[in-house]
Design goal:
The chain has 192 residues and is of the alpha+beta class. It has five helices and five strands; from the N terminus they run H-H-H-H-E-E-E-E-E-H.
Length: 192
C-alpha cells in the first residue's frame, strides 16, 4: 500500500495525540478520495492540503537524502523537499485510489526512543485480502506532532528511498536527483 499513507491535516489542537491525528486524517483522506474520484488533480490538491500540516517533509527529505543533505545548498534543500512532498502524496494517493474500498484501521501506539516520539500502528484492509501493516512515526516539535517516516510491511519509506537517492546523487549529483524526482512527479501528473 505504499507508503505515503502519510496522513496530515489542517492545524491540529495541541492536545491531539498521534493516534487521534491519524484516525482523523485517515477518515478525511478516504472521504476526499471517494467524493472526488473523477477529478485526480482536485483529489491530489485536497489530500496534499489535508496531509501537509501533520508531515515534517523537510525532516523526511533530509533523512531520505542522508549524508548528502548537508552538502546541498538551501535552494537545493527546498527543491528536494518540494519534490519529496509531491512524491509522498502521489504515492499515497496511487495506493488508496487503486484500492477504492480500502479502510485504515488504527491498531494502537508504540512509544519511541524518547517522550517526543511515537509510532501509530495501522492496517490497511481491503476486501478479501490480508491486511497491510502501515506505521506512522511521529515526533513532537514544539506542541505539535509531525510524521517523519512511514513504514509499510516493515519497510521504511525513508530508508528505502535513501538507497535510491544515494545512487542517483553519486551518478548525477543533487541537481540530478531533483531533476529525476521532478520528472517522475510531472510524468505522473500528466498520465492522470
Amino acid at each position: 500500500m505504499c507508503t505515503l499513507s502519510l496522513m496530515a491535516g489542517t492545524a491540529f489542537a495541541n492536545t491531539e495525540t498521534p493516534e487521534q491525528i491519524t484516525r482523523a486524517a485517515s477518515k478525511d483522506v478516504l472521504e476526499i478520495i471517494k467524493k472526488n474520484e473523477k477529478d485526480a488533480a482536485k483529489t491530489r490538491d485536497l489530500v496534499d492540503a489535508r496531509l501537509s500540516p501533520m508531515a515534517d517533509y523537510q525532516r523526511m527529505t533530509s533523512l531520505a537524502v542522508g549524508r548528502y543533505w548537508k552538502s546541498a545548498t538551501p535552494a537545493q534543500q527546498e527543491a528536494l523537499s518540494k519534490e519529496f512532498r509531491t512524491m509522498m502524496v502521489r504515492t499515497y494517493l496511487s495506493a488508496l485510489t487503486l484500492y477504492k474500498n480500502a479502510q485504515i484501521n488504527v491498531k494502537g501506539t508504540r512509544a519511541g526512543n524518547d517522550d517526543d516520539e511515537q509510532t501509530v500502528r495501522t492496517e490497511v484492509t481491503l476486501p478479501n485480502q490480508k491486511p497491510i501493516p502501515l506505521d506512522f512515526s511521529f515526533e513532537k516539535i514544539g506542541s505539535n506532532w509531525k510524521v517523519y517516516d512511514i513504514t509499510v510491511e516493515g519497510i521504511s519509506f525513508i530508508n528505502n528511498h535513501r538507497n535510491q537517492f544515494g545512487a542517483v546523487i553519486r551518478k548525477d549529483g543533487i541537481d540530478g536527483l531533483i531533476k529525476n524526482m521532478a520528472e517522475k512527479n510531472n510524468s505522473s501528473r500528466q498520465s492522470k
